[in-house]
Design brief:
Elements: H1 2-20, H2 29-50, H3 60-91
Helix pairs in contact: 1-2, 1-3, 2-3
Length: 92
């Protein structure tokens, strides 16, 4: 069940990150989901490092770290995607 939640959270974080980043992102949905999953992992690690990994109630600060990390990762991966595979697709 943990993997299913990781995929769902990664999907949602990836979509929110794509919506926040200005302009059009060309990376496919599966890559966005993976980036969202990586953002969740990186955000949890950052929250743990800062000392806000677990609080009573909803962990808003942890979710904020996850979202910021997902935004950065989606942005960087989309740039790399366009630099490699995206140029080939644009020519075709």
């Amino acid at each position: 069940m943990g993997w299913l939640w990781a995929i769902i959270v990664g999907f949602v974080l990836g979509l929110i990150a794509k919506a926040v980043i200005p302009g059009k992102q060309h990376s496919p949905l599966w890559l966005t989901t993976i980036c969202g999953m990586l953002g969740a992992i990186a955000g949890n690690a950052l929250a743990r490092a800062v000392g806000v990994a677990s609080t009573r109630g909803i962990d808003w600060s942890r979710h904020a770290f996850q979202l910021v990390a997902a935004i950065i990762i989606v942005f960087l991966v989309d740039m790399a995607y366009m630099a490699t595979l995206g140029k080939h697709k644009q020519r075709a």
